[in-house]
Specification:
The chain is mainly α. It has 2 domains: about 100 residues, Rna Polymerase Sigma Factor, Chain: A; about 70 residues, Orthogonal Bundle (Arc Repressor Mutant, subunit A). The protein is about 75% helix and about 0% strand. Helix 2 crosses helix 3. The protein starts with 7 loop residues before the first helix and ends with a helix. The relative contact order is 0.12.
């Protein structure tokens, strides 16, 4: 199987450029560093098999993000995952957490959000994507992404304030 992009240099540059972003995105879905690493690797394997060139760098990024989201959703729908009991994995023990900035309490609050809010919040704040890029990646309108961000921020604020008052 050869790819139009099959050069070692292209693959190395692409992995270096997007691996952290994709790993973080996968982690927000599966909440397990090992599964997130496997899914990220699957995304890059799919890139190796791709025979159609990208129109632009933005198209490449959007394709990788969309593919990662789809692979995560498929992973979570698999019978093995649905019928297995997850091991407790603390965020501080994960390799993914070492790359996140900020306090664990904020990350834990983001991870506790429903997926429809968690993904746009994560892409916007941790991966620094624009609303337009997020809309392309998750297949929603820009206005919808703006609404999801606003509602997600409110949920985060409420959960963080509630957590502080409870202590």
């Amino acid at each position: 199987m050869s790819s139009v992009f099959g050069t070692d240099e292209y693959i190395s540059q692409t992995v270096a450029k997007y691996s952290d972003t994709l790993l973080r995105l996968c982690f927000t879905y599966v909440k397990n560093s090992s599964d997130a690493e496997d899914l990220t690797q699957d995304v890059f394997l799919s890139l190796l098999k791709r025979d159609i060139p990208f129109e632009s760098e933005e198209h490449e990024k959007a394709w990788l993000l969309r593919l990662a989201i789809n692979k995560c959703k498929n992973h979570l729908k698999s019978g093995w995952i649905r019928h297995s009991t997850p091991l407790d994995e603390t965020l501080s023990d994960s390799a993914v957490d070492d790359n996140f900035t900020g306090e664990n309490s904020v990350l834990e609050a983001v991870m506790a959000l429903p997926e429809k809010y968690r993904t746009p919040i994560h892409l916007f704040y941790y991966n620094e994507l624009s609303i337009k890029e997020i809309a392309a990646a998750i297949g929603k309108k820009e206005a919808t992404v703006g609404t999801l961000l606003a509602r997600g921020r409110k949920l985060l604020k409420d959960s963080m304030i509630g957590g502080i008052e409870d202590e």
